[in-house]
Each structure stands twice: as C-alpha cells, then as structure tokens.
C-alpha cells in the first residue's frame, strides 16, 4: 500500500505569504507618514517646548516612517547607508519645516543663512535617498552591459546628482531667481555631468 503523500501548498499561497510582510510594512509606513503630515499642519506646533509630548511623538513618527520606508529598500538593494541617509534627511528637513521659523531674507542674508543650509542639507539627503531605487531600477532597464546595469555606485552617483539638483533649485529659490528656465538649466547640468561620468568612469569588473 502506497502511503499518502503530504499535501503540498499551492504555489500561489507562497507568493501571498512573501508579499504580506511587504504590504504590512508599506501600510505601516503610510500610516506613519500620514500622521507626520497631520501633526505638521497642526497649529502652534512650532511654539511648543523642545520636549513637549507632541514634539516627541512627531520625532518618533518621522524616524519610524523613514525607517519603515528605507530599511526595506536597503535590504532589497543590499546597499548600506540608504536607511541612515533617508532617516537623517527626513528628520532634518521636517524639523526645519516644523520648528525653524522661515527665513525673511535671501540666502546671502547672513542671519538667515543657517536656516537655508539646514533646509538644503535635509533636501539633498532625503532627495538622494528617494532617488536611489529609481536610479537603480532605471539603470537595469536601459543598460545592456551587466557591470554597469547592476552598479550600485552608478545608482548612488545619479541619486546624489538628483539630490544636488534639488538643493540647487532650493538655493536659487533662496536667491529669488528660481524660474522654469533656471530649473531646466540645473537639470541640464546634472544630465550632462552624468553623461560625462558614464563616458569616462568605468564600472567595477
């Protein structure tokens, strides 16, 4: 008599099991970001003491949202530093938006210069971290040479170019000269720089 074989799990259930943690993480990250935005637009947030309960909750939610967003990206790409840069950029940028009074003068007005530098630093770090997975995925689609297709250094470079372009646009806004033409010029500079990098910088073997 042939013993009964153990029941096998349908292949579709395996995919559902694998995707479920990612869906839970995405849902948790979305809820944290929504809570951050809700607190950010609440009145009188910037007038609270540094360690008021609402401010502490805001810090914790920003950190949790950033980690839930960028840690899965770092694990999937096996690229260290993404979560750290994304968390730092999120904290700095949102702290500047929530608690630092907006500048009253242009960027070259010395009393307001630290405010601009904090904001632009956070914008660069967060913009670079957000652009990294997009730069990597686009590279896997448009490049045919395997070393260049899966080169994380290329993806980091392109992400930092995007972050630098965002920061440059922010600086132009601080100079009161940001307009569509100047933004296009910044974008062209970033594109030409990347073309030169791709032409003269060889990917690792």
Write structural notes for this entry.
- It is a single chain.
- The chain has helices spanning 11-40, 53-77, 82-99, 113-142, 146-149, 152-174, 180-200.
- The chain has 205 residues and is mostly helical.
- Residues 5-18 have low confidence and may be disordered.
Secondary structure category: mainly alpha
**Element-by-element helix/strand order:** HHHHHHH
Total helical elements: 7
Helix percentage: over 70%
Question: pLDDT below 50 for ≥5 consecutive residues: which ranges?
Answer: 5-18
The largest β sheet comes out as: none
Percentage of residues in strands: under 5%
Cα radius of gyration in angstroms:
22 Å
What's the β-strand tally?
0
Give the distance, in angstroms, between the N- and C-terminal Cα atoms: 58 Å
Mean pLDDT, to the nearest integer, reads 87
User: Given the C-alpha coordinates, what overall shape results?
Assistant: flat
Secondary-structure topology with pairs:
Layout: H1 11-40, H2 53-77, H3 82-99, H4 113-142, H5 146-149, H6 152-174, H7 180-200
Helix pairs in contact: 1-2, 2-3, 3-4, 4-6, 6-7
Supply database-style keywords.
205 residues; mainly alpha; 7 helices
Brief sketch in words of this structure:
By secondary structure, this protein is mainly α. Helix content is 74%, strand content 0%.
């Amino acid at each position: 008599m042939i013993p009964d074989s153990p029941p096998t799990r349908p292949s579709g259930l395996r995919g559902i099991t694998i995707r479920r943690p990612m869906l839970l993480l995405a849902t948790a990250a979305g809820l944290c970001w929504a809570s951050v935005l809700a607190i950010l637009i609440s009145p009188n947030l910037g007038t609270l003491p540094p360690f008021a309960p609402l401010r502490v909750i805001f810090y914790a939610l920003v950190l949790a949202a950033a980690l839930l967003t960028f840690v899965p990206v770092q694990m999937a790409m096996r690229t260290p530093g993404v979560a750290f840069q994304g968390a730092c950029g999120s904290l700095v940028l949102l702290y500047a938006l929530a608690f630092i009074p907006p500048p009253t003068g242009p960027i070259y007005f010395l009393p307001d210069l630290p405010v601009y530098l904090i904001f632009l630093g956070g914008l660069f770090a967060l913009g670079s971290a957000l652009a990294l997975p997009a730069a990597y995925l686009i590279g896997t689609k448009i490049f045919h040479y395997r070393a260049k297709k899966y080169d994380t250094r290329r993806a980091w470079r392109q992400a930092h170019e995007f972050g630098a372009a965002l920061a440059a646009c922010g600086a132009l806004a601080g100079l009161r000269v940001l307009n569509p033409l100047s933004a296009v010029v910044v974008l062209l500079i970033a594109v030409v720089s990347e073309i030169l990098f791709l032409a003269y910088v060889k990917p690792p073997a």
